[in-house]
Specification:
InterPro entries: DUF4287. This protein is mainly alpha-helical and 75 residues long. The chain has one domain. It contains 4 helices and no strands. Helix 2 crosses helix 4. The longest helix is centred in the last third of the chain and has 19 residues. It starts with 6 loop residues before the first helix and ends with a helix.
């Protein structure tokens, strides 16, 4: 179940991730891709929260960004 946030809110969260976490978005997307292969949105968000202690909103933004980028590659 994805969250329904505005594109502006999503962009704001993505831009803040390096400052909040100390890692670039690309690093987080790599970690997500190399993670345990969970398929559902909520499972991937919960994995990032549990494994890397990310706040829910940032974990959800990263999973959403990952999904957006995967869809862009397929198109």
């Amino acid at each position: 179940m994805s969250l329904h946030r505005s594109p502006q809110t999503h962009q704001f969260l993505i831009e803040r991730i390096p400052k909040v976490t100390g890692y670039e978005v690309s690093t987080w997307l790599s970690r997500l891709a190399e993670g345990p292969g969970l398929l559902r949105f909520a499972e991937r968000v919960n994995w990032l929260r549990a494994e890397h202690n990310l706040p829910h909103s940032y974990a959800a933004a990263l999973v959403h960004e990952s999904d957006l980028r995967r869809r862009a590659i397929r198109a």
